[in-house]
Amino acid sequence: MISTPIARASRARPLGRMLVVRVLGTLGILLVLSIVVFSMLHLAPGDIVKNLLGNRPSSPDAVAAIRAQYHLDQPLYMQYLIWLGNTLTGDFGQSIRLQDSVSNVIGARLGITASLSGLAFVLALVVAIPLGVQSAVRSGSWIDRFATGFGIVGLSAPTFAVGLLLLYVFAFYLPIFPVYGSGDGGLDTLWHLVLPAITLALGLGAIILKLTRTAMLRELESDYVTFGHARGLPDRQVHMIALRNAAIPIVTGASLVLTFLVGGTVLAETTFALPGLGTLLQGSVLFKDIAVVQALTLLVAVTIATIALLADLAYIFLDPRIRAKEGAQ
After folding, report:
1. Apex CA 108: angle with CA 175 and CA 301, to 5°?
2. Which helix (H) or strand (E) element contains residue 182?
3. What is the pLDDT of residues 260-269, one digit of tens each?
4. How do residues 149-196 score in pLDDT, each as one tens digit?
5. What is the pLDDT averaged over residues 79-99?
6. 284: burial class by Cβ within 10 Å (0-12, 13-18, 19+)?
7. What's the chain's average pLDDT?
8. What are the residues whose beta carbons fall under 8 Å from the beta carbon of 92, sequence distance 6 or more?
9. How does residue 328 score in pLDDT terms, banded at 50, 70 and 90?
C-alpha cells in the first residue's frame, strides 16, 4: 500500500470525525447525568439548612440568609443552571460541612485516591495477565489450578474482609506495614498504601485473570496457532501473537474493572482510615453536603467516560480491521 501524506491524511480524517462524535456523545451523557444527580440529591430527604445550623438556635432571618447564600430560595431548575454555569468556569461551590471551597477539599484528597487506585490497578495487571496467559497455555497444570483458586478467592472475598485479614496478619500479627493513615508523603505514603492496594487489586485481578484465560484459550484453539506451530515458530512467538489477538477483550475487561475501583475505594479507605475521596464522599452523603457530592459524582463520571473513550481508541490501535472499518465509514 502506497503511504503518502495525502493518503495518510485521508485515512486520518474519518478517525478524527469518529473521535469528535465520541467526545460529543460523552459530553451529552455527562450533561444528562448531571441533571439526574442534581435532581436526586435535592429530592432526597433532609434539610441542608438544618444540617448547617445543627443544634444552634436560629432566627427566620438567619435561615433566609443561608437559603439565599446557597441559592436554595431559587426554583430547582435555576439552582441547576447556576451550578452548571459555575462548574463550567471551575467553581464547584462551597462545602457546607467543611466550610471550604469544593475544589480545595477535593484537591487535598485527590492524590491519595489516585495513588491508591493506580497502584491497585498496576498490581492487578502485572499479576493477572501473565498468570492468565500461563493458565491458558498450561491448561490443567498446577499453575492453572492455582490461577483458578486465585480467581475464586478474589471474586468471592468481600473487600472489607480482605482488608481486615491483611491488617491482622501484616500489620498486627507481623508488624510489617502500618495499621492506618496515609503517612508523611513520598515513600512513606507509598508504604502505607501497599495493603489497601493489595485489598483492591485482589478483586480486580481475579476478573482480569478470568478474562485473559478465556480469551487466550479461544485464540490458542484457532487455526492460525496450529499453522504457526506447524511452521516451526517458537512457542513464545505464537503465544505473543495469540495474546495480541486476545487483547481487545482484556482491554475491555480492564477498563470495566476500573469502575469497580469507585465502590471498592470507599471500603478500602474506610478500612485503612485513609483520607481520600472515598471517605470524603461517604461523609458528604451522610451530611448531605450537596456541592461536594455533585462535584465528586461529576468527577467519577468524567473519569469513567474518559476510560471508555481511551478503551475505544485502544481497539482502533490494536485491531487493523476496526481501523479499516472506521476509515471506510
Report:
1. 100
2. none
3. 676 677 778 8
4. 888 888 888 877 888 888 888 888 888 888 777 777 778 888 888 888
5. 82
6. buried
7. 80
8. 86, 101, 102, 103, 106, 291, 294, 295
9. low
* Rounded Cα gap, residues 292 and 94, in angstroms: 8
Alpha carbon distance 286, 131 (integer Å): 41
Local structure of residue 239 (DSSP, 8 states)? H
The rounded distance, in Å, linking the Cα atoms of 294 and 301 is 10
Contact 87, 38 (CB under 8 A): no
* Rounded-to-integer distance, Cα 288 and Cα 281, Å: 10
Ordered alpha helix ranges (H), the chain: 5-43, 48-53, 60-69, 76-88, 102-137, 142-156, 159-167, 187-220, 223-230, 235-245, 247-271, 277-287, 290-318, 320-328
Angle at 283 between CA 279 and CA 288, to 5 degrees: 145
Percent of all residues in the chain with a pLDDT value above 90, rounded to a whole number: 2
Q: CA 212 to CA 96: how far, in whole Å?
A: 46
Measured between alpha carbons, how far is 293 from 209 in angstroms, rounded to an integer?
33
DSSP string for residues in 250-302:
HHHHHHHHHHHHHHHHHHHHHHTT--SHHHHHHHHHHHT-HHHHHHHHHHHHH
